[in-house]
Each structure stands twice: as structure tokens, then as C-alpha cells.
Sequence to fold (182 residues):
Amino acid sequence: MPIVIIFSLTQMTLLATLGSFMGAVFGGENGGYSKITKDALTFPPFIAAIIAVILFLAKIQLPGDIAYFLSFSGPITTYLALIAVGLGIGVRFSLVEIRAALEVVGIRQFLIPFIVIPVIIFSGLSQLPASILILESLMPPAVLTVVYAKSFNLDSEKAATIVTVGTLLLLPVIFFIPFLFG
Fold:
């Protein structure tokens, strides 16, 4: 199985289990093991990843017409997610929120890649998987952060600010990515 699929499944599993647990603990929700297990097993992106792995291992491909129709969902989902984040920022968007967001973004977009890049370099991975993993480590917090915050009664406006600030800080880096992986 390709390393990128293993990485994505591991990341999704951690997000579904630890993310649900942390959301339940810090959001005041009941974080019992049965709820965490249920949340992990019914987490839609996790289910989609498992189905994708099963289809991949069984060498089943979607018919061309269905694949073509589903290919439109990516851009539409991206735009809808960005609109949702924009609506999530609300009226509290201020310098105080930006400072708080910079702490999270500093860890997510600077400290994590600083740790991950040497590990990947010494791992001996070929260029394509290494490039994908490095690119993943540079990404800002996902829009899913806002969904988690909202569903666990956490500060979804702050989460939206973190996603927005992280995305804006990544924009100048995008121009240098081809030089990193060239």
C-alpha cells in the first residue's frame, strides 16, 4: 500500500478518535469510550477513506461517467467550505483573535514542518511520497477544524480565524513550493 494512503488513513484515524475525544473533553461533552468509538466509526471522511482503500485493494474503479460527475464535487466543496469559514469568522474578528491564531498557526505551519522535514529526509522515501508528506505538513489547519469546534460547542469563530490566518500565511509560500520540490 502506498505510504501516502497509510499517512492519510493514520491522520484520519487520529482526527476521528483523538479529535473527538479532545473536542468532547474541552467542549464539556461526554467523552465516554462508546461515544468516541461511535464518532470515530461514523465520521464521514473516515468512512470514505476506508471505502476508498477497499475499492483500491479490490481494484474496483468507478465507471467513467460517475467519476466525471463526481469530479465536480471537489471545487464545489472547496468554495462552500471557504464560504462557511468566512461566515464562521463573524463580527469578533480582531487583532486579539489574530494573535491567538498566530500561536496555533506557528505550531501547525512552522514547528510541525521543522520536525517532519528532517524525519522525511532521513527516512529514505522517494521524491513523490516525501514531497506529498512535506506539503501536507505545511498545510494550514483544515476547514474541518471549524466543524469540530461548532459540533463540540467550542469557539468556532476562533477556529475560523485560525483557518483564515493560516491560509493567508500560506499564500506567499505557495510560490516557493516548486523550488522546494524541484
